[in-house]
Amino acid sequence: MSDDDQQQVKKDFDDAVNMTASEIEHWLDTDESKSVGQKSGGGESTGHASGRKIVGILGKKKDDLTDADYAHMKKVHGYVARHTKQRPKGDVEDTDWRYSLMNWGHDPLK
């Protein structure tokens, strides 16, 4: 991936992720966080695992980001972009839609 591509992926990721690492960590410990998302084999949901990866990425310096980190950052941006377009009508504060987005580091109420 070129430097320009990495810069764009980082910018898109930073635009999508509007929660801090500590906010995400706190959120991931909640029952609401654990209650949503696709679970393969009854284990941790895809979004919950993604949240843990995001916390790790947010804790790294730019020079320490790996190709796998950039790939995940791109995945996060894509998920948030798609999912935000599916916003349900009405109050979304206590919805699975919001909880799923928060697992991916994006709180739509911020």
Jot down its keywords.
mainly alpha, 110 residues, 60% helix
Average pLDDT for all residues: 94
Question: Helix- and strand-based class?
Answer: mainly alpha
Shape: globular
DSSP summary, beta strand count = 0
Account of the protein in words:
By secondary structure, this protein is mostly helical. The protein is 60% helix and 0% strand. The chain has helices at residues 3-16, 21-28, 31-35, 46-58, 67-84, 96-103. The protein starts with a helix and ends in a 7-residue tail after the last helix.
In short:
The protein is mainly alpha-helical and 110 residues long. It is 60% helix and 0% strand. α2 runs antiparallel to α4 (46-58) and α4 (46-58) crosses α6 (96-103).
Question: What's the SSE blueprint?
Answer:
Blueprint: H1 3-16, H2 21-28, H3 31-35, H4 46-58, H5 67-84, H6 96-103
Helix pairs in contact: 1-5, 2-4, 4-5, 4-6
